[in-house]
Amino acid sequence: MKSVYLCRVSSREQEQEGYSLSSQERLLSEYGDRKGLIKTKVFSFAESASQKKLRKIFDEMMLYVKKQDIKIIVCEKTDRFTRNLRDLIGIYTWLEEDEERQLHLVKDGLILHKNARSQEKFNLDIKVVMAKNYIDNLSEEVKKGQKEKIERGWTPGSPPLGYKAIEFEGKIIHVKDEQYASVVTRMLHLYASGNYSVERLSRLMFSEGLRSKKGCRILASRVHGYLTNPYYYGKIEWKGKLYPGKQEPLIDKDTYDKIQHILTNNCTPKQSKHTYLFKGLIKCEECHGTVTWERHKGILYGHCHHYHDCTQTVWVKEYQVEEQLINALKLLQIRNKRIQGWIYKAILASHEFQLQYHRKVLANLILQKEQKAKQLSELVDMRTALEIDKEEYTIKKNKYKADEEKLETAITKQEKYEEKYIKLGIQFFEISQHAKDKYDKLFPDKKRMLMNLIYSSITLNQGKVTFTYSRAFQILAKAVVATNSSKLEDLVKLPKSIFELPEKISPMLQSPHYLSSYTDVRRRRESNPR
Fold first, then answer.
1. Which domains does the chain show, CATH number per domain?
2. What gap in Å lies between CA 520 and CA 513, rounded to an integer?
3. What is the full DSSP assignment across 189-253?
4. In terms of pTM, does the model score above 0.85?
5. Which of 87, 122, 194, 437 is an S-S bond match for 82, by CB 3.0 to 4.6 Å?
């Protein structure tokens, strides 16, 4: 009589090793030979009651035996056949439809059919209930272990790309993966810049060596998952809730929030067949429409598209626009090297005042955090003494925890402020002095980033470019006009000590009341500090 064999292992690892499946199939084949059964097909799979997708194979087997009119199903034992009541009801229904249908459970010594004795059916029911209890208890223990691991600050399961699992003091923890951590960090910062779409970012990272476990390009959908994963800034998302994690972050909270803003507001650049240098950067001065770029006979032209009423008729070549903007970069350069050195020192000196203020803010935040921790401790004592009920305790606890988390974020930001603030000022000044020299060496996308950084708006009027510097560069441009003035030529001949910044800072200016107005105070000081 025709039959099918069902071989099942408890885990995917056992299925890949093959030992359990092969031993089961050999046992069932020997049993079938003794009973005179004809094997038509063997269904082998790893299945768990919690993995719904893998149950598809079991349902395919039941559909196969009905379609091919197979009368006998052979399995090793009850818990290999089913571990839930739904399948038990399904097999009873299948047996009741035909008296010739049978279920053989080899190691249990059971042969179930429509007219089987009640004791045999009872034995099957008991074994299924016991198998279900085993699975339920196993699931309960796994969830308990997962919860404990999350409370300790570690995520259950495998870490995301950029991290790896290692054993430390008998426990599995997650640390940075030296191979991919820097690449993933770069990917997140590139998207936060707002200059890349998810698809373009996926292709760029593939060209820079980022690969999946199989060595393939990571698709845009998977990249999107990485961009939305809070794990990279130190949190663990589990069943819709965020928990504090102990893993070393790859980015800060501000960068993560910026990424989410770009994703949710749909403001990333779209994939385009043509990527031009000034695409979307220049407006028509008359109608304020975006200048359109077209290529004719190998030359790229920009012109107003006349979506609004406009009298502009000139088509300007791309290199002509580029030349005008490059020449504008010269206006930011300070010709006198000695004055450049003074400004550089002034930047460092001004940072010291700002840093004093932020250090005071940091000390205040740490004090507030300690107060919150004390309040939380007192709240626990009140609950232990039954002075408040569980509901009030939960509400206040969540509030204190939320406040503590905000303070922790603010503290982290202030701790990083000192280094970032100094670097930002120095980089800003260096960009302004060397922008023209570095421009020609940049790739088109970097050129666009430089243009966005220096210019807040660029307009076109009959082929002539008009621009407005961004706020920071506006201030610098005014200073450059003054420092490059011919009136300053004689000043460089005076003794160096006259123009050097003082070693010590006025005690009055160190007062917090003067910190906010420090820039104005410094500007009104005499050139000779003596």
1. 2-149 (3.40.50.1390), 163-264 (3.90.1750.20), 411-524 (no CATH)
2. 13
3. HHHHTT---HHHHHHHHHHTT---TTSPPPPHHHHHHHHT-GGGGTEEEETTEEEE--SPPSS-H
4. no
5. 87
